[in-house]
Predict the 3D structure of the following.
Amino acid sequence: MIGYVTLGTKDLARAETFYTGLLKELGASKLMEDERMRFFGVPGQAPLLAVCTPYDGSEASAGNGTMVALTAQSPEQVDQLYARAIELGATDEGAPGDRGGNFYGGYFRDPDGNKLVAFYMNFGG
């Protein structure tokens, strides 16, 4: 299915610091890097999340309607991820809360404007 998702950045060092600090909350770390990309994940698990400077040399921009969803294990972990993201320089796009009974999520944008959500779904089974 999905192997990895790539988000563009204007500042690779800043993006690496942000995602290292955020994704460690999910047990992920930097797994691979080259001169323009950093891949984060949990060894042996997919998908991965990558940040990169655009290949064509143009400035990175956040996609309108594009969002990356980070799976949390509980509503409390959603709260922790959201708070950590804000602490690391993210901006609020919707504080954590119930979004329809089975979905609990907190929305934010990374320092480059890419939209993410930390979420927990509970279908009772």
In short: The mean pLDDT is 94. The chain has one domain: 4-53+67-121.
